[in-house]
Every structure is written in C-alpha cells, then in structure tokens.
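Help needed: design a sequence for this.
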C-alpha cells in the first residue's frame, strides 16, 4: 500500500480555524460538565463492566487500554476519587508507565446495551495500599496495583457514535471466523508463523488455557 502524503494546505493547526468549521457549542454541552461524581455518574460507574483508559507519556506518545471486570469493578471512594484495579495482562505496562510520566488520564465508561457513555478526566496515581487492593479481590486474587484517579471533569456523552455503529444490534454483529484468530495474526505480524495447522492449534489452546488461569 502506497504511503499517503497529506497536502499541508488542508491541515487544521489552530483552535480558531478549527472552530470556524463548526457551529457554536450548545449551552447544555457546556453545563453538563461536572467536577464531582454525582449520583448519576456513580450509578453509571456501578453498572459498567468495561472502560477505556486513555494515557499519554510526557514525550507525547499516547495509548488507550481496555479495562474490564464484573459490573461495578471501579470503586468510587468519594465524590472526587475513584480507583481502578489493574488485572494481569501482557506486562507491557504501557498505561502504568505513562501515568508515572504524565498523570493526566481520560476514561470512557461503557454499559452493554446503553448507547450513551460516561467520560471522566482526571489525574492518576499508582497505589499499592494493601487494604484498598484487598477490597478489589476477585476469586480470592488481589491486584498487585491500582490506579487512583482524582476527578477533574465528568460528563455524559451522547448516543450518536454507538447508534451510528449499531454496536449493540445483533443483526450487525460480525462473524469472528471471517478474520484469522488472534494468535494467527500475532504470529503473522511477528514473522514467526507456525510450521503447520497442528502447531497453530496447540498455540491457540495454550492461549485459551492462559486466559483461564490468568484472568485474575
């Protein structure tokens, strides 16, 4: 695939030029932004089993990481503080390293079946308080570390993106078998494809076994 070369003439590089492209912001879009976790935000968080965590390193490198657990896995400590357990992963630690470098974070909470979402921006710290971590144990397994977030802004996000995408419409669900498996993709991307289908089957079974053993 040929590399795309962008004409600098069509690059928007300042906020004034950007805002000229759009209508003025609606008054409600400004007023909806809160600085504390009110009862509606707390209820949304309690129902959510999934969020996306946005972080950025001090050098500007950005990352978004999915986080999932049983509904209510994110604990609201007080009206300005919440905590997210860090579960076992691939040990890249991208989000955690970024937080050490730059504590500003953004969270997007999702509830299956809901088209609207909850957005929270704040400042994060990594904590290993044993009493706090113990409250987030699942199946007798305690997280090694958690992300404590002081809230700066909280607001509900409208349903347009989820409705455009038909995210929860079963008639729009795609067949996973139409793409290679995760293991197959990784092997291909790393130029280490297995010698035969039997070896690939073994690797995929091992991955499923790892999921079973290391979710918590």
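Sure. Designed sequence:
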């Amino acid at each position: 695939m040929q590399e795309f070369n962008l004409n600098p003439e069509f690059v928007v590089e300042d906020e004034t030029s950007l805002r000229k492209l759009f209508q003025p912001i609606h008054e409600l879009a400004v007023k909806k932004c809160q600085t504390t976790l009110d009862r509606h935000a707390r209820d949304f968080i309690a129902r959510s089993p999934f969020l996306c965590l946005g972080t950025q390193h001090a050098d500007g490198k950005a990352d978004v990481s999915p986080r999932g657990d049983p509904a209510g896995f994110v604990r609201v400590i007080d009206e300005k503080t919440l905590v997210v357990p860090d579960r076992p992963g691939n040990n890249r630690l991208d989000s955690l390293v970024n937080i050490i470098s730059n504590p500003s974070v953004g969270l997007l909470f999702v509830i299956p079946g809901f088209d609207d979402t909850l957005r929270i921006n704040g400042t994060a710290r990594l904590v290993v308080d044993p009493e706090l971590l113990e409250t987030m144990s699942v199946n007798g397994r305690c997280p090694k570390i958690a992300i404590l977030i002081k809230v700066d802004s909280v607001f509900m996000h409208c349903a347009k993106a989820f409705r455009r995408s038909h995210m929860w419409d079963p008639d729009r669900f795609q067949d996973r078998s139409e793409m290679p498996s995760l293991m197959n993709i990784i092997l291909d991307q790393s130029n280490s494809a297995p010698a035969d289908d039997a070896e690939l089957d073994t690797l995929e079974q091992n991955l499923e076994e790892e999921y079973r053993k290391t979710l918590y």
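The chain has two domains: 10-165, 174-214.
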